């Protein structure tokens, strides 16, 4: 698989993981502040979802902007998802699993999305690195 195809595949994986996480929020119920489905959490999740779809679109089109988008969206999403779910409660964007004690499906959805976001960021960075030539540097 060519590098462009790999970037699109990883972007597709992140979109799929994002959809799984979104479905888990729907399963837990929107608008229930004690479960973290506040308007702020909804807005943060929607922003990540839109960014994931735009990144996938750029990667499928083989846009020169796709690697930068993948790196930024991937790493920023990983930090945001982890901050919202894997840390103690800290503010309006917090949906702390340490307090909520969700089931294994919710944990799986968050961990898969976080891991796929890191993969997306790494794939974007890998495409941004200049290609190595077969020439050796002089000693």
Care to describe what's here?
- The chain contains 5 helices and no strands.
- The chain has 139 residues and is an all-alpha fold.
- The model has no long low-confidence stretch (mean pLDDT 88).
- It has one domain: Substrate Binding Domain Of Dnak, Chain:A, Domain 2 (Up-down Bundle), CATH 1.20.1270.
Helical amount: 55-70%
**Which parts are unreliable, with pLDDT below 50 for 5 consecutive residues or more?**
none
CATH class: Mainly Alpha
Please trace the helix and strand order, writing H or E for each element: HHHHH
Based on the structure given, which CATH architecture is correct? Up-down Bundle
How many runs of DSSP E, i.e. beta strands? 0
Main sheet, how many strands, which sense, barrel?
Answer: none
Strand content: under 5%
How large is the count of helical segments? Answer: 5
| Spatial extent as radius of gyration | 17 Å
Structural class, from helix and strand content?
mainly alpha
Give the overall average pLDDT: 88
Count of the domains: 1
CATH-derived topology = Substrate Binding Domain Of Dnak, Chain:A, Domain 2
Q: Globular, elongated, flat, extended or rod-shaped: what is the shape?
A: elongated
Question: What is the end-to-end distance?
Answer: 35 Å
Brief summary:
The chain is mostly helical. Helices cover 70% and strands 0% of the residues. The protein is elongated, with a radius of gyration of 17 Å.
């Amino acid at each position: 698989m060519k590098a462009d195809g790999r970037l699109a595949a990883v972007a597709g994986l992140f979109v799929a993981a994002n959809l799984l996480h979104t479905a888990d929020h729907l399963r837990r119920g929107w608008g229930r502040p004690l479960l973290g489905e506040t308007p702020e959490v909804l807005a943060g999740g929607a922003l990540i979802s839109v960014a994931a779809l735009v990144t996938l679109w750029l990667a499928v089109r083989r846009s020169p902007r796709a690697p930068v988008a993948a790196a930024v969206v991937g790493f920023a999403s990983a930090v945001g998802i982890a901050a919202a779910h894997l840390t103690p409660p800290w503010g309006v964007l917090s949906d702390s699993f340490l307090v909520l004690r969700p089931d294994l499906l919710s944990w799986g959805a968050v961990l898969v999305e976080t891991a796929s976001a890191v993969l997306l960021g790494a794939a974007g960075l890998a495409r941004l690195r200049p290609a190595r030539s077969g020439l050796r540097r002089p000693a």
